[in-house]
Design a protein that fits this description.
431 residues; Serine Threonine Protein Phosphatase 5, Tetratricopeptide repeat
């Protein structure tokens, strides 16, 4: 696709073919479906991870050179991070993996380097992950396992040609790891229907193996894809299936909270779920959801308070640049200069359309209309059909009096209320 008009024509075709925008108007959530999961042990996975950490810590404490104990210990720290949101655990895992690499033989180092690369990916340190993986790949390594992670990283930083070449090398329609990556690639290309099809096949493999971890992963991710497509009932059902497999799965609970807010305008019940999550999985982004809902309800004071709570957590230096994109969105209206600085950092880290449209937004907030237009034209136009990118493109075109492009983008965005959320969707209606 060479220009924004081609991109939008494809987007509109996808809306027609995939059903995106069909928000299942007749479908209604039922509190009985999910409230039980709020009442069950909300820290079961955390408790299990803590017990693992204690066990392996004691084993390693008895023999500080026990290389075989370092992997499980670091893995336990990673699980503690996933279940609690406490960034310190992720950094603890990084420390252990680095030590394991230092004391391991060359053959064993490869596995630890991949594990450390996954840790870096969680920290959004994609360039560090790529450098580590490419170094390991050049030596004695499990080439296939390393290629899988390199694909993930190349996709994240916008090295699309490298990612596509790796994907062809990895092709195996019967392999779970390939299917989830071809699904990601299809989503990146804007083919949500294909992404769902591949993920359904991956889920079928997980079910055939009765592999709990893969079933949880596949159900939660396919729920997200169905949300992108506008098939909200299917999204909701897969989030519930995820919770049936793991009652304290925070991502699935957040997904249901978004459905309550964005599809049903039920900020009260959505807020109950977000508050529940904040007690047991305290990550900064939840406060931005609360801020958005407060703003939607017309409570600007409370919204500002929640934004400040977000920054109180997100400014922890241990997070590094993990929350740059969230910060940019939150800072555009209150400190556009800082937003621009962070946007430039994000573009340096990840030169992808999703970074560039935030750079354009920050430039526009500083009245740099021509710079913003150049950013959209050169780095976003025709390269993505994500609703937020299209919305920011429309705002830039509007500022530059390019009404024909604005009208076309608005038409494409009208079915995107669920993905954008009702508060941000107001900007679409105002185009």
């Amino acid at each position: 696709m060479k220009n924004i008009f081609a991109c939008i024509c494809v987007s509109l075709l996808l809306l027609a073919c995939d059903g995106r925008g069909d928000t299942d108007i007749r479908f209604e959530t039922n509190p009985k479906d999910y409230t039980a999961f709020l009442e069950e042990n909300p820290i079961k996975s955390y408790t299990e991870a803590w017990q693992e950490k204690e066990f392996w810590s004691k084993r390693l404490g008895a023999d500080s050179t026990g290389v075989g104990d370092m992997g499980p210990l670091a893995g336990a720290y990673s699980k503690l991070f996933e279940t609690s949101g406490d960034i310190q655990y992720l950094k603890d895992a990084e420390t252990v993996y680095k030590k394991a690499i230092t004391v391991s033989s060359v053959k064993i180092q490869d596995g630890y380097k991949r594990a450390l690369a996954k840790n870096y990916i969680s920290q959004h340190r994609f360039k560090d992950a790529i450098a580590l993986l490419e170094e390991s790949y050049a030596g004695i390594s499990n080439k296939h396992a390393t290629e899988l992670l390199l694909f993930d990283c190349y996709l994240e930083v916008g090295a699309y040609l490298k990612a596509e070449q790796l994907l062809k090398t990895l092709e195996n329609i019967n392999q779970f790891d390939y299917l989830i990556r071809i699904s990601k690639w299809s989503d990146h290309k804007g083919d949500v229907s294909a992404a769902i099809g591949y993920m359904e096949k991956a889920l079928a493999i997980a079910d055939s193996r009765n592999n709990l971890a893969l079933q949880i992963w596949a159900n939660s991710n396919i729920a997200t894809f169905y949300g992108h497509q506008g098939a909200i009932k299917k999204s909701y059902d897969h989030y519930l299936k995820t919770l049936a497999l793991q009652a304290d799965h925070h991502y699935a609970k957040k997904g249901i909270a978004w459905i309550l807010y964005s599809k049903e305008d039920n900020t009260t019940q959505a807020g109950v779920i977000i508050d529940h999550l904040l007690k047991h999985h305290r990550v900064p982004e939840y406060y931005l959801i609360k801020a958005e809902m407060a703003s939607y309800q017309g409570n600007s004071k409370q919204s500002k308070e929640h934004v400040q709570q977000f920054f109180t957590l997100a400014n922890n230096p241990l997070y590094g640049e993990m929350y740059n994109t969230h910060k940019i969105m939150a800072l555009v209206d209150i400190d556009p200069q800082r937003a621009l600085q962070l946007a430039k950092q994000e573009v340096d880290n990840r030169a992808i359309p999703q970074s560039y449209h935030l750079l354009a937004l920050a430039q526009l907030a500083l009245n740099q209309k021509q710079q913003a237009l150049s950013t959209i034209t050169n780095h976003v136009d025709g390269k993505t059909n994500e609703p937020m990118a299209l919305l920011h493109s429309a705002l830039v075109y509007k500022a530059n009096d390019m009404q024909e492009k604005v009208s076309l983008l608005k038409t494409a965005l009208l079915p995107a209320r669920f993905e954008l959320g009702p508060q941000i969707y107001k900007k679409v209606l105002a185009l």
